[in-house]
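Hi support team,

I submitted a single chain yesterday and got back a structure, but I'm not sure I'm reading the token output correctly. Could someone confirm the output below corresponds to the sequence I sent? I've pasted both exactly as they appear in my results page.

Thanks,
R.
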Amino acid sequence: MSNRSVCPARSWLFTPATRPDRLLSAARSGVDVSISDLEDSVSPAEKPEARKNLLALLDTRLDETMPQLAVRINSVSTRFGLDDLVALLDASRMPDFLLLPKIESPDQVALVASLFDQAGKTSVLVPMIESARGMFAVESIARSSSHVGALMFGAADYASDVRAQPDSLALQVARCTVAAACASAAIEAIDAPCFAIHDAELLQADLAFALANGFRGKAAIHPSHIESINHAFTPSAERVAWAKRVLEANEQGAGVVDGRMVDEAIAREARGVLASV
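Hi R., thanks for writing in. Yes, this is the structure output for that exact sequence:
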């Protein structure tokens, strides 16, 4: 999915671009993708400084052992977002991923992709679905550009927009809808952070739901969640062994593995497991 496609993208950690030192803390957490955030974690007065910090970071030759780098710009419907795009178009290097917040139309994504193409820039686009309007357009957003590699669900903004509570069925349905749109477009689905930083039980419930409903990774707002996220989205040895048995049976044309008839759907699931190792 990313420019460093051999790297996993299970865990995504938000860090404010006003605090570049936190990127080093993110690296020590074992996170797969470190997000330098120009949007919600940065006040309007601090956005020029945050943008300057980001450009300095992009000018730095990062060690290959560092996490993949993502940038969340401001909404492309705002002046801040346009300033962010101009800065990136002039940057010496692009991040591995570009998170596009509050996307509600495929045209917004297509515009960014077109600007990058014109400038000869490459970055995997990750639109964020954070409103009812975005949810109604989620399938077309997922297919809006060949540069789109994933969608990320923005639970807090979505809940506010539809007046839902964190534990509501509305948010569960929304998460499943995003995951289904990603599956249809053959891209990755990234779940929203668990905002209860010190509630390990809630984090595990969140991860169980994400795994059971098609997500391939999860964002975080605190480094303490990274280990659990990475563990959850790494197939166990037993799961890998099951996948290998399924593919062996599939090559023979038919078979039963652990009580399940092996068909193309099960084989596709097994190939997905092995691709995640």
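A quick pointer for reading it: The chain has a mean pLDDT of 91. Let us know if anything else looks off.

Best,
Support desk
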